[in-house]
Amino acid sequence: MLAGLICGFLASLGTATIGSKTEIDVPEIEHYGYPLPWVITNLNGPTEYVPVNFALDTVFWIITSLVALAFLQKKAFPSLGIHASRKSALLVMILFISLGLVMDFVHEFGHALSGIAVGGTLTYMKIACLEVFPRLALTQPFRLGLTRIHGLTYGSAAYGLVFLGGSVITNVASWILAIILLKASLDVNAKLR
Length: 193
Description:
Elements: H1 2-14, E1 19-20, E2 29-32, E3 39-42, E4 48-49, H2 51-80, H3 86-117, E5 121-133, E6 137-150, H4 157-192
Antiparallel strand pairs: 1-2, 2-3, 3-4, 5-6
Helix pairs in contact: 1-2, 3-4
């Protein structure tokens, strides 16, 4: 039950990245949230939040999460031979989200590092709702990751390397982590024998 509540709440928060269309579409106003828009951004004013829509979205995603978790626990996991306790499933979910944000930071740092290496200037970096550069602050709206590099020509090789840099640094960090975990696993196995 707790896992379904947490998953539903996090899914509802995550919908702040999904744009919603309304019957009347005004270019400077954007709506975010699913199935109901609960974040309204306006180029001419502050960001508005609709708590009732957020609550309804949260209920929708909690019910969806509970149904999905019940299906996984009763049907999918046993047919695959997987037996997982609720505590281990909750731990996996918490680790997945927190380590996902860390890897998102590594990815955006890769864009920034490669942009500086090819002669650009880092002007902005943001992960989720946390602005990392030029100042450390909580900002809206939610963006999974955003890095802006100034001083590069669109379509140039340097511009392409900035895009490639995020994936390269993420890949290198993943390989380093895999080697560390493999070494730790081999050390534990050697001690058990």
